[in-house]
Amino acid sequence: MTSILVACVGNIFNGDDAFGVEVARRLSRVTLPDGVRVIDFGIRGIDLTYALMDGYDAVILVDAAQRGEAPGVVSVVEPDPIAAGDSTPEDLALSPHELDPAKVLHLASALGGNCRCVLLVACEPLTFGGDEGVIGLSEPVAAAVGVAAETVEELIEEMMAV
């Protein structure tokens, strides 16, 4: 059996950064195959790091990511593999107030995590709310939540078929 972690991340107080959290909420309403766990990690980087050490065959990260696209565009990205020896102390330092997926992946690799497949379902944000923050997604990012949830379901189906 294939085990898949769908790790949704984001900060609900920073506008479109809550994208992953909203996708987790949407996925909680569908029945997924045995062996698939959807977890809303919010900004808990340490929790995500430990989850990456749990021996999943695949991880699908869901997050807002600035990739130079129009706001609301959903992309599937395969992050570059991280060798355990490629980490610097800066790569391994996690903040308790934010979750940087690249740093989490570096730390998990340095600790011996060996997930064979990591994908990122990313949505181009419109706003993170500035210094004041903002609760709620912008219109184009809110419209992308369903697209991202469907994309995650399609990726799971492909992974389970292998």
Q: How are the elements arranged and paired?
A:
Elements: E1 4-9, H1 19-27, E2 36-42, H2 45-52, E3 58-64, E4 74-77, H3 89-92, H4 101-110, E5 117-123, H5 139-161
Parallel strand pairs: 1-2, 1-3, 3-5
Antiparallel strand pairs: 4-5
Helix pairs in contact: 1-5, 2-4
Describe this structure in a few short sentences.
The chain is α/β, with parallel strands linked by helices. The protein is 33% helix and 19% strand.
Report on the structure:
The N and C termini lie close together (10 Å). Helix 1 crosses helix 5. The chain has a single domain, classed as HybD-like (Rossmann fold). Helix 1 links the parallel strand 1 and strand 2. With 162 residues, the chain is of the alpha/beta class. A 5-stranded mixed sheet has the order 2-1-3-5-4, sandwiched between helices.
Low-confidence stretches: none
Rg value: 15 Å
Count of all domains: 1
Give the distance, in angstroms, between the N- and C-terminal Cα atoms: 10 Å
Oligomer: single chain
Biggest sheet details: 5 strands, mixed
- Can you count the beta strands? 5
- Please report the first level of CATH classification, the CATH class: Alpha Beta
Mean pLDDT figure: 83
Give helix % range. 25-40%
Q: Helix/strand-derived class?
A: alpha/beta
Strand order of the largest sheet: 2-1-3-5-4
> Which fold name fills CATH's third level, the topology?
Rossmann fold
- How do the SSEs run, as a string of H and E? EHEHEEHHEH
β content, as a range? 15-25%
Tally of DSSP helical segments: 5
Please identify, by name, the CATH architecture: 3-Layer(aba) Sandwich
Shape: globular
